[in-house]
Amino acid sequence: MWADAEELYSSKYDYINVDEIMANDRQREQYYKCFMDLAPCKTPDAIFYKGHLFEAFTTKCKKCTEMQKQNLEKLVEWYSKNKPDQWNAYLEKVLKDAKGTE
């Protein structure tokens, strides 16, 4: 069953080019540090996505737009292949955060 439009996350930042961010070391690290709580989030889209990433992971992106699903898939694939240590650290953080919300 498809979620109703009002149940989806806002598509306001769907225009963000994830491929460009992943290809730019400085930008990619800035986002990663934001999501890991190692540095402040510097852009409105980073703040938005950080606020929804935990729920998106735990619900298998149930409220994601199609573009958000595609972008999340790209991130998972890129980090799994290119930065597995950072990816594993993020997954550990997600699990730790999940235990903190129970």
Written overview of the protein:
By secondary structure, this protein is mainly alpha-helical. It has a single domain (18-100), classed as Insect odorant-binding protein A10/Ejaculatory bulb-specific protein 3 (Antennal chemosensory protein a6, Orthogonal Bundle), CATH 1.10.2080.10. The protein has helices spanning 18-23, 25-35, 44-58, 66-82, 84-100. Helix 4 (66-82) packs across helix 5 (84-100).
Indicate the mean pLDDT.
Answer: 90
Point out poorly predicted stretches.
none
> What is the name of the CATH superfamily?
Insect odorant-binding protein A10/Ejaculatory bulb-specific protein 3
Provide the CATH top-level class. Mainly Alpha
Q: Distance between termini?
A: 27 Å
Q: What would you report as the Rg, rounded to the nearest angstrom?
A: 13 Å
At CATH level 2, the architecture is Orthogonal Bundle
Share of residues in helices: 55-70%
Could you say which overall geometry the principal axes of the C-alpha atoms support?
A: globular
- Major sheet, described briefly? none
SS content category: mainly alpha
Q: With helices defined by DSSP (H or I, 4 residues minimum), what is the helix count?
A: 5
What is the β-strand count? 0
Strand/helix succession: HHHHH
* Total domain units: 1
CATH topology: Antennal chemosensory protein a6
Q: Tell me the β content.
A: under 5%
